[in-house]
């Protein structure tokens, strides 16, 4: 229970006992997500759905993720050669826009080994902090880029080194803002020899200037932090805050080992971030290797809010092989849970087969983030991958109509045939929901919402747009169901059944009502195959899947009643060989 290099190495006073309690909270809450809670009193926060790790198809070590104005932005160590940013409407970056926003000049102190860029939005400006050297690791130092505009995918200007007076080796730096003051937090050496990486903090006068001496907050003196060393590691620092409390996560053990793990420091309420005595250090990691889940080396994380701001999420990298080392490190995500005592729990790292409920508010594309279409109306662009020109895609429009009479709007995708939707009159600020089907092209899509004459009718307010599609490869497959890549699929693949069930959890609707379930499935046999459908709180139904070619996924429809809030829909083919691409929900 003694002090360890300035910080108290206790798990907030309770050690492993509290870790066990927090794990129980986490597991109980996940069970609540997956089983569906009473949602009648919960405001509608999107059509839900699930995703699976990893959240990127390419290697994305050291992920740094920010959510702003309807988009997630992620940067990461991109071969140590440049700074790349990915942009996505959702936390799934598999089809994200990618752009290298900065290349280092040659023959400078920062031309090589660009590590762990951190993208941050600070006081109205975008910044990227990164470590780089001249080809020799002992010369790694921290540097900063500042965006030239308010577009994080735009141009950046190199702003120089971020350093304290010691000018020692430094990586993994980022800015912490607390009580209107700025601090720089990073991983560094005490001297000039690579024995250990410590956690340091220093005050800042602005986002580009350290204004005081560095302070040692944590050294890698716990057994789990020293695995794979020397050198012994504290790195990959990340800031998490809630209700005025501040937590500093970091990664310990060698990043080249499967034992790379995430620990945490907690600032005591009302404490001084520059006083080591005001930080408490966890004795055990909050996330570590999990052989059962097949997750190795989880670490170097960042934290990001859900789109509606109600949840905290941890984004970290990990591998799927115990001997992968620095290979195959891909970004993964799961929700941070909070105990009644105000302490965070990350839970065990989830397997790549686990269907994870999406962040709250995901898939709601707000009109306030939309553009203006040529000739008037709203332009919703950069919408996720469609099912191809031959398939129709569901849209869910949020609107207000206090005019006392009905109205109509037109929806148009990529210059295709417009679809007209009727908007019944509503009372006051009541939000209404209307569904439509529209043809999407392959790749990123855009939707224009207009009135009959171009502009939106007077008194009509469009507040958001959704695509209530649930990809089968992200659903929870039972024994006998397996995900496989498929170039003809709507998303990245399909779920193929050799018996077994496929469960679509967290299917959320805004109102209790009858809905149309649209099932895209392939049946490459010569006969019809029965597909059994079961919903939470509803009787079982059966539809017949017609014979198809192997690359065809026609839609079969079924009417069923769904309750307001979260529902589960389970599909079970009566015979082997059926592949499910997706399900849609429309009215």
Set out the fold topology:
Layout: E1 3-4, E2 7-9, H1 15-35, E3 50-51, E4 64-68, E5 71-75, E6 83-88, E7 97-102, E8 112-122, E9 125-133, E10 141-147, E11 156-161, E12 170-178, E13 181-188, E14 198-206, E15 209-210, E16 215-218, E17 234-242, E18 245-252, E19 261-267, E20 279-281, E21 296-305, E22 312-319, E23 330-338, E24 344-345, E25 356-357, E26 365-366, E27 371-372, E28 378-383, E29 392-401, E30 407-413, E31 419-423, E32 432-439, E33 445-450, E34 460-466, E35 469-471, E36 476-477, E37 481-485, E38 493-497, E39 502-509, E40 513-522, E41 529-535, E42 541-545, E43 555-562, E44 565-573, E45 579-586
Parallel strand pairs: 2-20
Antiparallel strand pairs: 1-2, 3-25, 4-5, 5-6, 6-7, 8-9, 9-10, 10-11, 12-13, 13-14, 14-15, 14-16, 17-18, 18-19, 19-20, 21-22, 22-23, 23-24, 26-34, 27-28, 28-33, 29-32, 29-34, 30-31, 30-33, 35-45, 36-39, 37-38, 38-45, 39-44, 40-43, 40-45, 41-42, 41-44
